[in-house]
Amino acid sequence: MPPMEGLRVVRSRIHGYGVITTRPFREGEVISTIDGIMYRAHERTDDRGTLWLDGDCYLDILDQMRWLNHSCDPNIWIDAGVREDGTPWARVVALRAIEPSEELTLDYALEVNEAEPCSCGGPTCRGWIVDQQKFAEAEPLRAPAPRRVAGRRSGR
């Protein structure tokens, strides 16, 4: 896959590989589009590197964006969906100004039953990779999460 302008895949302090910027991005700027193959929930085999689009539609990410890591204090979000003709679209958008060498991160906001311990290390870390609004409902997760060295990414 060809490199994406303004981005580079590197070893991440959060987990495995990550995507860093090589130039500044403004708040609201579209950083990149995402390439992938759409599939339906019943076709799902491995959800790592997968983005939920709409209903039971998912996008298996095929480009460098598959290395986006989770953070409880993200600097990007993913705008995505399915066009009327049935083709998927997705783009990475800056939540705030992003400086060169910053790792791009998003809040995976996993469902409670899919929650995993978080290793983002951010000042607002919830200790779990779980939707912030559903975290309060997650009784088993209220105890401090065990710290681990690695996290994983999934779709928004």
CATH topology of the largest domain: Beta-clip-like
CATH domain class of the largest domain:
Mainly Beta
**SSE order, one letter for each helix or strand:** EEEEEEEEEEEEH
Strand order in the sheet with the most strands: 3-9-8
Tell me the count of domains. Answer: 2
Structural class determined from secondary elements? mainly beta
**Rg over C-alpha atoms, rounded to the nearest angstrom:** 15 Å
SS field, number of helical segments? 1
What is the CA-CA span between the terminal residues? 23 Å
Compact overview of the structure:
By secondary structure, the protein is mostly beta strands. It has one helix at 132-135, and strands spanning 7-11, 17-21, 30-33, 36-40, 50-54, 57-61, 69-70, 76-82, 88-94, 105-106, 116-117, 128-129.
Walk me through what this model shows.
The protein is mostly beta strands. The protein contains 1 helix and 12 strands. The protein has one helix at residues 132-135; strands at 7-11, 17-21, 30-33, 36-40, 50-54, 57-61, 69-70, 76-82, 88-94, 105-106, 116-117, 128-129. It is globular, with a radius of gyration of 15 Å. 33% of the residues are buried.
